[in-house]
Amino acid sequence: MTDADTWVQIADIAASLCFLAAAGFAFIAALGVARFPDLLTRMHAATKPQTVGLLLALLGLGLRLREPWAFGVLVLIGLFQCLTAPIASHMMGRAAFRAGQVRDEFLIADELSPVMDHEEPRGAP
C-alpha cells in the first residue's frame, strides 16, 4: 500500500465521520422541533444544529470528492447558508411575533413589544 492510498483511506474515514456527525445534528434538530413547546424555540432548534449539520455534510462531501472545483462550490454553498439562515429565521420570528403566534409566558425578555405599539403599514410603500 502506497502513501497515496493511505491518505485516500484517511480522507474517506474523515468524510464518513463528518457524514455521521451531520446526521446526528439533523436528528438533534428534528428532535428539538418535535419536543420544544413554542414557535421561537422550535425555530432555534431547526436553524442552529441544521446549519452546523449542513456544514459538516459539505465538509464530508469535499473530503470524499477531492476535486478543487467541487471544494470551491461547496465553500460557496456553506457561505451562502451561513449568511441567509440567520436572516431568514429572524424575519420568520418577527413575522410570527407580529401575527400573535408567540406565547408571552415563554419569553424571558421582550424587546419588540415596546416598539410595536404603533400601527405598521401593510404591504409595500
Automatic annotation (TrEMBL):
The keyword Transmembrane applies. It comes from Nocardioides massiliensis. This is Multicomponent Na+:H+ antiporter subunit G. InterPro entries: PhaG_MnhG_YufB (IPR005133). The chain crosses the membrane at residues 13-33, 69-88. Keywords: Membrane, Transmembrane, Transmembrane helix. It comes from the Bacteria. It holds the Pfam family PhaG_MnhG_YufB. Belongs to the CPA3 antiporters (TC 2.A.63) subunit G family. Signal peptide: none annotated. The keyword Transmembrane applies. The lineage of its organism: Bacteria, Bacillati, Actinomycetota, Actinomycetes, Propionibacteriales.
